[in-house]
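Methods — Computational structure assignment.
A single polypeptide chain was analysed. Its primary sequence is given first, followed by the predicted tertiary structure written as structure tokens.
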Amino acid sequence: MFFLTNCYLPESELSDEEFSSDPVQPVPEGVTELSSGALLFNEIMFHPKPSGQEYMELYNNSGQNIDIRGMILRKKREDGSYMTGSWLLAGEESVFAAASYLCFTANRETVIQQYDAPAECVVEVPGLSALNNSSGILVLLSAEGEVIDEVSYTVKMHTTLQSDKSGISLEKRHPALSSGDPDNWRSAAEDYGYATPGRENSIHTESGSASDQPEFRLESTRFNPWQGERLLLHFQLPGDGYLVRAVVYDITGVTVCKLYHNHSVGTSGTLSWDGKSTQGKIQLSGSYILL
């Protein structure tokens, strides 16, 4: 990953028809020019919690390091016309590494701290305009005005059962999928804090998976909660959108603890139990059932 410089480009300096006419600087060795489809929208946090921060994430789908100097973000209206304002996402000596993620936001520190995002993958764009909380159209453009990618998002694309969608990002099932198809987008999983800026998406699904059945594996069938140990159940799911309900029973069938109820998970992860009842009491030695 390379360092990126960023600045806000005032709307007076860009119109729908006017893009930079400055002499084009040579592309660094080992780096290719930005072109349509090379970068794709991969995640959007358009309605954060009051303490949160909006961001949009891109994925380098080209397989090569890309020179992104002069890359611009714009917003469109439903009729296809551009809204006022343009934001320069990358200035001089800006290179986007192959098969990596970059997250763009108006407040870098908030995104890093709140979502545990890798610092090298978060870029601050001062003055980046607020995203509409219900719907919007984002367009990524090269310095010459070529459309690199475009996405139309709406709160209706969320798949979570949560009534309050704020603080939940939209993620693509796979970064290489078309940004323009609403079916390629899902709500980020609760297991991952409902957001994964700068990282692989929580609902990431590899195309052509070998198995269409979920896989589960207990790390150990014995554990000692008095020593701080936990029961760990690892899982691998064949797709996204799964909700988990997990309950621990004792050997007589009495409920000990309700671990999860309609808990949204990613395509892989780990469920855990600390050996305590719902009331927080560590249970006696014995056999227990997890369903």
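Note: Residues 108-115 form the longest helix (8 residues).
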